[in-house]
């Protein structure tokens, strides 16, 4: 049996131990995860952001996860189901709206209002692309919208002096440039990127309140018929309706297609593949009417985040001028951070005037962005509409029948929502 002195001594040791702080290894650090969309090539920059962020925040950890485009949505849905979503997610196009509609993203409206200087520092039309039912869910990461590229050499050979000024011009110019081994026009088709062709003809997909369809009209039928006829004749390249990214951009890079309707980053792919591409041989401008479909990347916070305040802190940190500037200069892109973009364009005016002019189009006429309906079921609506349009372009159905069938399918999705 222990004597009284030993008992007192052991009690004092226990009390002293309890008074000491727990070893660092036993403490639970604050940790957030950051999921990005196929930007593994920027690892040095991302890791630099994390190192600087955590240096001034002892005990904080940031885990970076990067997934390729086709893998990211599946990965995120799996993590949502498991109750372990990444704290911050980088998404493309309307996917952020779908996650907002599912209740997966944190409403950041009050945070933006509380820090008006931060929110007002973004291009407001792009910031509005991630407003769902009146609430903000994401901020811009990097921005793109569609432009019209044209092969100046082919234009000159066809006797065309400049880019088309109307939809009629697009069709007529495409017909003029087609031959046995060339076509006149290509468009990317995913994520509604072709919709400016309809917008410039006054055709919209949905009513203003997004409650009903608006596309099944005589004008829409006429536009669809003309696109299909031009595709059949070889004026419009069929890859417009079958390819996605590599195929149409690769076809344009080959040098035997007159026009390419794509979002701005297509330039870097085409330039890398096409030896003919120079500022003297390639032009880039707005389509007639200055309509464009955005296909931008945003950053949001998962509603299931265990550390939403820390996630917001990191999100603000990486989108400030210093951090986002590193990323944008490497990739030559637009961020939506107006202070940085202004400086960046001035730098590019000296180092790469063509790219400077191209990127400026991304912040021009942002009030005319189309194909960006604030839908929580965008992908389902797209899947209801697109196959029927494709049927017409590939000669499987006439335009009137296909649009009527698409109308029924889209209305069904709107009612389900």
Number of strands: 11
Tell me the strand order in the biggest sheet: 2-1-3-11-6
Number of domains: 2
Instruction: Give me the CATH fold name of the largest domain.
Output: D-Maltodextrin-Binding Protein, domain 2
Description:
The chain contains 20 helices and eleven strands. With 417 residues, it is of the alpha/beta class. The strands form three sheets. The chain has a five-stranded mixed beta sheet with strand order 2-1-3-11-6, with helices on one face. Strands 8-9-7-10 form a four-stranded mixed beta sheet, with helices on both faces. The longest helix is centred in the C-terminal third of the chain and has 18 residues, at 399-416. The chain is globular and about 65 Å long. Residues 1-28 have low confidence and may be disordered.
């Amino acid at each position: 049996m222990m004597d009284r002195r030993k008992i007192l001594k052991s009690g004092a040791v226990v009390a002293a131990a309890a008074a000491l702080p727990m070893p660092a290894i036993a403490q639970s650090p604050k940790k957030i995860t950051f999921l990005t969309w196929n930007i593994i090539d920027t690892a040095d920059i991302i890791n630099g952001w994390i190192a600087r962020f955590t240096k001034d925040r002892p005990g904080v950890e940031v885990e970076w996860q990067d997934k390729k485009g086709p893998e990211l949505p599946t990965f995120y849905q799996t993590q949502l189901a498991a109750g372990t979503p990444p704290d911050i997610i980088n998404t493309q196009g309307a996917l952020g709206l779908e996650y907002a509609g599912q209740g997966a993203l944190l409403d950041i409206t009050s945070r933006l209002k509380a820090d008006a200087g931060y929110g007002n520092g973004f291009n407001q039309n792009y910031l509005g692309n991630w407003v769902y039912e009146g609430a903000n869910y994401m901020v811009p990461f990097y921005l793109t919208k569609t432009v019209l590229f044209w092969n100046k050499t082919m234009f000159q050979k066809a006797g065309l002096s400049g880019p088309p000024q109307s939809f009629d011009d697009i069709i007529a110019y495409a017909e003029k440039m087609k031959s046995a081994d060339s076509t006149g026009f290509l468009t990317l088709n995913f994520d509604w990127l072709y919709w400016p062709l309809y917008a410039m003809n006054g055709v919209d997909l949905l009513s203003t309140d997004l409650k009903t369809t608006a596309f099944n009209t005589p004008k829409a039928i006429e536009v669809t018929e003309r696109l299909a006829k031009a595709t059949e004749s070889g004026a419009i390249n069929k890859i417009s309706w079958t390819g996605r990214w590599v195929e149409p951009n690769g076809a344009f890079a080959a040098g035997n297609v007159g026009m390419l309707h794509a979002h701005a980053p297509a330039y870097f792919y085409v330039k890398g593949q096409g030896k003919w591409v120079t500022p003297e041989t390639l032009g880039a401008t707005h389509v007639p009417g200055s309509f464009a479909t955005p296909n931008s990347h945003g950053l949001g916070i998962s509603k299931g985040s265990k550390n939403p305040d820390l996630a917001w802190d990191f999100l603000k940190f990486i989108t400030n001028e210093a951090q986002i500037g590193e990323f944008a200069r490497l990739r030559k892109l637009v961020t939506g951070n107006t202070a940085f973009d202004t400086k960046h364009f001035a730098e590019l005016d000296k180092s790469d005037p063509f790219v400077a002019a191209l990127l400026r189009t991304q912040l021009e006429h942002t009030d005319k962005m189309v194909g960006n309906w604030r839908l929580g079921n965008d992908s389902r609506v797209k899947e209801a509409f697109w196959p029927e349009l494709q049927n017409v372009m590939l000669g499987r159905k006439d335009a009137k029948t296909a649009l009527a069938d698409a109308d029924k399918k889209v209305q069904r999705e709107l009612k389900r929502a």
